[in-house]
Records
---
Amino acid sequence: MLSYQHIYHAGNLADVHKHALLCYMLSYLVQKDKPLCYIETHAGRALYDLNSEEALKTGEATAGIQYLLQAGKISSEEPAPYGNALKTLREKYGINTYPGSPLFAAHFLRKQDTAHMAELHPQEIKHLQNALKHVSRKMHIHHEDGFKMADAIIPPTPRRGILMIDPSYEIKSEYQKTARFIEKMHKKWPVGIIALWYPVLSEGLHVPMIKALKENDLCAIHHEVSFKTIKNHRLQGSGMFIINPPYRTEEHCRIIEKLFF
């Protein structure tokens, strides 16, 4: 399905959770000179205008990143390194913008690194191409299904790296499909970091997916946060399931939790 557009949800609390963990993992990986590969299955448009009609219609950014900034819960230093990356990107693109995962990744990636971003939506791919056109010659953009793109690339060259997966979950079968896909990618790329984001909805649709992943006895971190400040909303929290997490990722999860109290 191609109806989902993240502009309605950009900068919400789930984005903060997801991007804070992603920024930590990337910042850890680039401490070594060895090149890495970043792969993202559902890239979106990479840069979002929080003053747009779509963003203002839902008000999710107002209750998300804008609330956290105004409350002083996010600074240029905390939670590091998300706070620093966010500050730098907002200074570059405007204080009323919010970067998606591709721009956060581009912030950390170096000349020796490679990235592959997939987006299937015909409008979103145009925004993605425009947002990344001046970023890096190794930033490969794919107008295709992200699962197919990743399956064709993995195991990547270089072998170090992260696979970021955050589908729209527009249909219920996407949860089961994602679990099977992760199991397949881990078998093909046992040393790769595989990071899955999912929404914690009132219906609990994510529960069978996480149960299936845990049954594989993977070296993984499972982290969820609840959105106590949001009432009467279907989205009750945010979850991340990370296979082969970098050193001290679990400790950083506890730091991030403080944002949502």
---
Amino acid sequence: MRQFKPNGITKSLLWAILAFFLSLTQLSAQDQGIRIIKGKITANVSESSIAGATVSVKGTQNSVSAGEGGAFSIYAKTGDILVISYVGYKAKEVKVGAGENTINVRVTQDYSNLQDVVVIGYGKTKKSDLSSAVGTISSKELEKTVNVTLDEALQGKSPNVYVSQTSGAPGAGASVIIRGISTVTGNYQPLYVIDG
């Protein structure tokens, strides 16, 4: 069996064919307008940046998370639709225009799905994935009675929450026990987180 040994002309011809196909690929990418789109995601009202928001190209697996300061960078082409989503904000779709390399997006808050996320002492999770019980007391329930402190307002509103007065003196604090006394240090008072 004879072995084929390319000579100088054959090598040049092979390189020319390879270069031709590479240039066709580049032209095809340029025709489609594939490029890096950069931008920043901010809240509509407060104008604060939203780090961690998801930016994806609709109909593809191409997605990134916004980094520090809400900045993002994603590959897209002219005509693609970028979908911006984040918990607590309405998803927004933005079409990539011809020659557009920077897209700054402002998203509006959406409180309708916030009941699905529960912030716990060691992180946050969806309410459906939570392994413990969660009690919710709405502000409408708290407004039904006249109370001086938040502790007093919780009294009788949730099961397994026991609220009692520490003394009969005016302005004396209340003791709040949730599901009995079971701490090592003996300090069983809850930590209140209001508006984040």
---
Amino acid sequence: MNLPKEEIDDRILKIFHDLRFIGFFLPEKEWTYRGNGVRLGETETPIFWYRPEDSETYRVIYGDLHVEDVYPENLPQ
């Protein structure tokens, strides 16, 4: 990704804040973090997913920071 360093830093900071929020306030909810070692821009690599309340799908954040809704059977093992 050809983003300015400041924009990359801002995106990373936002993700960390979001992860901290989810981990602190929703510990009983279903969520997984697997971003260790993933480099920014890895479009096919899921780094974090959680199941919103009353949802059939999981919200998945990928290494390039895009977000998709994914059915449980399509989550990484």
---
Amino acid sequence: MNSLLISFFLIIFFVGLSFGSFLNSLIYRLKEHKTILGRSYCPHCKQKIVWYDNIPVFSYLLLNAKCRNCKQKISLQYLLVELTMGIFFVLSFLWVNSSMSVISYQLSATGVGHYTPFILSVIKYWVIFFVFTFIFVYDAKYSMVDSRVVLSASLLVFGLAIFESFLKENSSIVLSDLFQIFLAMIIGVGFFAIQYVITKGKAIGMGDLQIGLFMGASLVSWQFVLVAILLSYIIGAIISLGLILFKQKTIKDKIPLGPFLSIGSVVTIFYGEQIINWFFR
């Protein structure tokens, strides 16, 4: 791998870190009903943060995880979310390229049109991982889902997926993709809607239905949606049991489902095909 390509991936990684920084700000400001515009500020002393204290990861480490002004601790969430987004941005690029083989290690492909489907797909997965990370953190912290983000993202990812399909210039493929996405979204919403009705909203909230919609738009295949849900419930059961055994939670406590749905969906994006092939071999 040449130095040009390494530099290219480092740029993508830093772009991901920057989006992770924005994501942290978005989570805080949406919950506090603040505008998402304007400079970042310390949630404790409300002092505006200077640019050199707002560099993703590096400022956190250089400041020893403390605000320069009030010396209050900066949550580890800020570092972890930034690193997660940086890693996801690079993985998205590598994963999409592994299926499309557009970018060679010499970066020798020519013509912008040659890259259009690839770039569109990468952007789509950047949005997907951004929103699943948002769902994970927001639901874990506040036990709620922000419908403005999830529903808007569902529409955006759906639009990007359809645009991807149109680039194939085959009407039968477009119709097939449309049907697949609609079916996946119906399965995603329907699975949680049934539970919502049966439990009268006690076990499942409206936020879970919205996550189901986003899962359908993101995973496209109804089989992938079912795999993601199954993984989510297995992971959720294991972690919940561990929390109860270590007396961090009681059996009566309600544990948010969003983080587990996010984990299950991300695992399915990368390994869904292998899981299905293994299960039905």
